[in-house]
Design brief:
By secondary structure, the protein is α+β, with helices and mostly antiparallel strands. It is 20% helix and 35% strand.
């Protein structure tokens, strides 16, 4: 099961089993109709230490992004994913 363990203005940490991944991003001011949390999808490549030698698969990355977006929406934020 995957879940958020930490959320800040600059990153969100996800736990998946015994592994963690830090997803970087940036929170902006809330403007109606505009995204207010930019998720840096390109930052999702490896698990955090001590599993940092393991690459995150595309399937895992999609699940991580879904978890992050769902978490932000549940907390009143409008996420946007940047892949480059």
């Amino acid at each position: 099961m995957m879940h958020v363990t930490e959320a800040t203005r600059g990153h969100i940490t996800i736990q998946y089993g015994d592994k963690f991944v830090t997803v970087y991003g940036e929170m902006f001011g809330m403007v109606p109709g505009m995204p207010d949390y930019q998720i840096y999808g390109f930052s999702i490549k490896h698990w955090d230490a001590p599993h940092d030698a393991l690459l995150i698969t595309e399937e895992e990355k999609k699940a991580i992004l879904t978890e992050v977006c769902d978490y932000l929406k549940q907390h009143g934020r409008t996420p946007d994913v940047l892949e480059e």
